[in-house]
Amino acid sequence: MVKTEDESTSKDCWREVFERNRSVPPPRQTVRLAAERHCTHSEGFQLSLGRVSVPRLPEVSVTAPLRLTLFDRDHKHFFGKTWRSQPQKMKNNRISFSEVLYFHTSLRLPSTVVVLELVSMSPRPDGSQHGLGEGFSLLELFTTRPEAPAADGNRRLNLHHGSPRSLLHPLVKDTSVEGAHLDCVIKPHPALNSVMHLFPENVLVSGDENIPGLAASPTGITNVSRSKNKAIHSPAIKWNGS
Q1: Degrees (nearest 5) of the Cα angle 210, 12, 228?
Q2: CA-to-CA distance for 187 and 210, rounded, in angstroms?
Q3: CB burial string 72-102: b at 16+ within 10 A, e below
Q4: Quick check: helix, strand or coil at residue 34?
Q5: Which Gene Ontology terms of cellular component type are present (predicted)?
Q6: Closest CA to 177 of 191, 158, 194
């Protein structure tokens, strides 16, 4: 017989798992179009976030996280799950994130992009935090030919005024934030092929997240747990695949 306390703990654990893995599905039309263009298998990618330059942000008592979400430009639809970085402090009008993210997707279409938003967090008198969008940018992932490999390499993205919600309103005028940009690197990551079944498609994850079924490796090579009874959690997963 299961004790009431054990049942409550079990429910809390399942609720936590559900909330952590909940994501928004992509548009059905996009999934259908990808299938018609034979983009049926998911491919892995690595996104390295570097430095953000924002000259106009105040440097006193302000920290800033980045938020990233996948977006379909043709159907104006955010999908997947928003990833949030830890807030970082500004120094000399620059914010260094040094984060490496991973994701896999079969929607290798020009309409699939990553939206990045910079949010400044300032303290309120009551101790809470006030968030203010400082600009956003779009990272294009694929070329105009779906059968071609994803464009990869170093990118310098300009930040635009306003909120990413303006992408849902085509009549809103697009204006850039003068002198503000974000440096990042996007590239294919074949090492994910053997482990992408362990986390959902179209969901961004960082290398230090706990992924059931993966074990930390001192060599930097992903270890997949073959145990049927217990999933291995790792505090720092390395997915270099080298």
Answers
A1: 50
A2: 23
A3: beeeebbbbbbbebebbebeeeebebebbbb
A4: helix
A5: ciliary basal body; ciliary base; ciliary transition zone; non-motile cilium
A6: 158
Give tens-digit pLDDT for 99-130.
999 999 999 999 999 999 999 887 778 877 77
Contacts of 148 (CB under 8 A, 6+ apart): 142
Helix (H) / strand (E) element for 136: namely: strand 129-140
- Residue with token string 């849902």: 168
Confidence of residue 81 (pLDDT cuts 50, 70, 90): very high
* Domain locations in the chain as residue ranges: 21-206, 209-242
Q: Is 223 in contact with 233 (CB distance < 8 Å)?
A: no
Q: Indicate the CATH number of 21-206 among 2.60.40.150, 2.40.50.140, 2.30.110.10, 1.10.418.60.
A: 2.60.40.150
Quote the tokens at residue 73: 């430009």
Chain centre distance of CA 8 = 32
Compute CA distances 50 → 2, 18, 181, whole Å.
Answer: 49, 31, 11
Pairwise CA distance, residues 97 & 184, whole Å: 10
- Structural tokens at position 193: 């092929």
